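User: Hi! I have a protein structure encoded as tokens and I'd like to know what sequence might fold into it. I'm fairly new to this, so please keep things simple.
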């Protein structure tokens, strides 16, 4: 957090250096980013992502959409619009927050996107199967995504039973766990642990971590087997 003198923000452990939450999902042929955070440009430079096929959005909060302008580098090199998948709530926010992208008379060099609607049915991006489902971020519906055996959920504090059935059977989950104290719209650490255990998912990685949670090395020993804190640039490989 900017200007914060706390132990986490001043830590020299690279696992305590957290940019805003996002993931890259890739198969042999296809590469998708989930959310374009305010750190999107640096995240793509840092991981040397030379090609990107699509963006999936979870919800319209600024820490998940602010980096969209920087997809224009991919427009330039790939010479085609970027496929952007979002629900109606997020589409409306994108049209407002990035009005210039949708204007009738476009300034040269601005992002070129093909907006695609996520309605609730599963779909394919290249060879990657995507099952979207709703979770609750206080009263805002947020999209979670299941890609084969892997499920990604950020910014949620409640999941309905029908959606739990979609998640069950995943081999791994990335799930938000903000801090120790209860929060109005995010799972805290205990709630996240309980959900993973309820859903019986063998491997879990917690994301969207606040500096209030504590240092990576202090929290890891407190977690049950199979549950870890995620960290920036972590890679998970599924066969
Ligand atoms: Zn801090
Ligand atoms: Zn949010
Ligand atoms: Zn967020």
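Assistant: Happy to help. Inverse folding works backwards from shape to sequence: for each of the 239 positions I chose a residue that suits the local structure. Here it is:
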């Amino acid at each position: 957090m900017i200007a914060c003198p706390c132990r986490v923000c001043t830590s020299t452990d690279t696992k305590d250096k957290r940019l805003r939450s996002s993931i890259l999902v890739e198969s042999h042929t296809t590469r998708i980013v989930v959310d374009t955070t305010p750190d999107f440009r640096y995240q793509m430079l840092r991981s040397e992502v030379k090609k990107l096929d699509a963006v999936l959005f979870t919800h319209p909060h600024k820490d998940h959409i602010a980096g969209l302008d920087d997809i224009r580098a991919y427009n330039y090199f790939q010479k085609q619009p970027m496929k952007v998948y979002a629900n109606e709530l997020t589409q409306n926010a994108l049209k407002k927050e990035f009005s210039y992208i949708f204007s009738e008379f476009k300034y040269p060099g601005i992002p070129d996107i093909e907006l695609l609607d996520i309605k609730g049915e599963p779909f394919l991006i290249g060879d990657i199967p995507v099952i979207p489902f709703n979770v609750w971020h206080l009263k805002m519906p947020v999209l979670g995504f299941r890609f084969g055996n892997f499920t990604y959920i950020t910014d949620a504090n409640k999941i309905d039973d029908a959606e739990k059935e979609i998640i069950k059977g995943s081999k791994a989950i990335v799930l938000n766990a903000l801090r120790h104290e209860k929060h109005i719209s995010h799972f805290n650490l205990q709630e996240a642990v309980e959900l993973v255990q309820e859903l019986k998912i063998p491997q879990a990685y917690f994301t969207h971590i606040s500096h209030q949670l504590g240092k990576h090395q202090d929290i890891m020993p407190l977690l049950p087997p199979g549950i870890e804190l995620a960290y920036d640039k972590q890679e998970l490989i599924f066969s």
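A useful reference point when you look it over: The CA atoms of residues 85 and 116 lie 5 Å apart. Feel free to ask if any position seems puzzling.
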